[in-house]
Each structure stands twice: as structure tokens, then as C-alpha cells.
Amino acid sequence: MLRIAIQAKGRLNEDCMALLKDAGINVAASKRKLVARATDFPIEVLYLRDDDIPQAVAMGVADVGIVGLNEVAERGEAVSEVMRLGFGGCRISLAIPRDVTYTGVEWFEGKRIATSYPNVLKHYFAEKGIHAHIHEIAGSVEIAPAVGMADAIFDIVSSGGTLVQNGLREVEQVFHSEAALIAHPSLSAEQLADLEKLKFRFSSIVESRGMKYVLMNLPAEKLDEAVALMPGMRSPTVLPLAAEGWCSLHVVIPEQELWEKVEQLKALGAEGILVLALENMIR
Ligand code: PRP
Ligand code: ZN
Fold first, then answer.
1. Model confidence pLDDT, tens digit, residues 159-199
2. Are 248 and 238 in contact (CB under 8 A)?
3. What are the distances in angstroms from CA 118 to CA 46, 73, 158?
4. Domains of the chain, with CATH numbers?
5. Is the C-beta atom of 89 inside 6 A of ligand 1?
6. pTM
7. Which of 158, 170, 173 to mutate to test the pocket of ligand 1 (most atoms within 8 A of CB)?
8. How far, in Å, from the CA of 12 to the mean position of ligand 2?
């Protein structure tokens, strides 16, 4: 039996719920309950504030958790990072009022900076040899410069919309974050076995996201050239076709490369190209 902590509400909650569901783990999404037991996997879900997840996992209140690496870095708790999950991408950045001239990181010398990430910022400034006044505030960090509480902020940036709305400009990207699965450093053998299962399911989902399954008919003589276009793929599936001199080729292509590869395959004479979503890729 594993107890997993996930964010009760906020930017990671929906993606976490979707990941669990895709992994065949169904839990009541009741936001009012603190704990929910899955019906089909030995797991219990604990809904917490993201800021509290690293400590809950370090203390063993939860055995594992899904949380942004930003929170893991800030809290400095003893947890192990099991795997990155490919969602919840954001950065923690320094931002200053739009109209102020920025001269480089020395600009921050002696300035007042509002943040909810004081430890990450202290570490960064120590590295750069900058002395600044760090004001820790819990929320609405982005309004601090406008109300005269600070000269700059250090906060999460995702789309950048919040900065624009508040007349701020991102000048240094300090920490790049995404959601990760973290674990208590000493789990029982039984829990480790459950964690392995969970990791296996999560990995196949994370790997298949952003991949497309592509089928096409190809002149058999072009097969070697087509296969050479797909470096890094294990040998693709090739099936003979009834029509002499033709074969059917099946490949998995990362979404970012899809159109480029499809155009190259078409140029080789591929026909009847079908692009399908890939639900799961089990290695
Ligand atoms: C963060 C941050 C900004 C916003 C930035 O808050 O504090 O307000 O996201 O996102 P954007 O660049 O897409 O506009 P979050 O929603 O994580 O809430 P929290 O600070 O209360 O955890
Ligand atoms: Zn938060």
C-alpha cells in the first residue's frame, strides 16, 4: 500500500488526476476529502497544498508525491526524485518593472526583492556574489513592485501573462521546473515493489505523450531510405502488401518532427499515410 500526495488544487492538480487515470488508478476527485483510496491499485491519494508535499514525503506522512521541482528545491527536504513527469513546466525568474533599464544581474545589488522562493533566490545570489534584501511573501508576489513593497520579484513564470498584466519584465530565468514523482528515502520492500509498478505505468504514459503512430504504403525499394529517416527508432514494423513491390511501414514519430518526417516520406513515394494518436508505449 502506497500513499501518494498530490496537489489539492492549482496548476498541477488536473494533470496529476489525468496521469493517475491513464495509469489505471481511479480515485474519487472529491476536493473536500483529504484522503481517497483507489479502487484498483494499492494506493491512497492524499490531497495537499503543493508547498507542503516535500515535507509530507520527507516525514513519511506520504510515501510518494507529485510536485513541482520548484517546491522540492525551495523546501530542501530529504526526498528522492524518482522521475520527471513532463508536465507543469515553468521557471522561477527575476522580473523588474517594464520601464526600468536592466544592466545585468548586478542590477539587483542592494535591491528589495519579493518572493515565495527565498532559498532558491539566496542560493542564486550567493553564486553571483550579489547582496540584496529578500522579502518573503506568501502570495500575490507580482503586485509587490506596484505597491512599493519591492523593486523586483522572483516568482513562477509559465505563460508570462501574470508579468505582462502587472507591468513586469522577466530578466533572469533562474530555475527550470516541471512536475516530478518524489519518494520518501526509505520505503519498505513491499512499497518499493508498488513504486516500481507505478513508475512503469507512468513512464509508458510519459514516453507515449507527444508521439504519433504513423502507417503508410511505401515502394519496397525505398524501405532502407525510409528507415534511415527514423534514427533512434528500433527497427520499424514492415508488412508486405498484396501489390508487388510495395510494403506497409509502421513507425512511431515524436510530434515535433511529425510534419518534417511525413514530408520526407512522401518525397520517397509513401502513399496513404495515416497518423494515429498513441495511447501507450510499453517498452
Ligand atoms: C504562479 C505565479 C504567478 C503565475 C504565473 O502562481 O505566482 O502568479 O503562476 O503564471 P503565468 O506566467 O502563466 O501567468 P500559481 O498559479 O502557481 O499559484 P501559487 O503561487 O498560489 O501556487
Ligand atoms: Zn504554491
1. 999 999 999 999 999 999 999 999 999 999 999 999 999 99
2. yes
3. 27, 11, 19
4. 2-87+178-208 (3.40.190.10), 90-177 (3.40.190.10), 211-277 (3.30.70.120)
5. no
6. 0.86
7. 158
8. 10
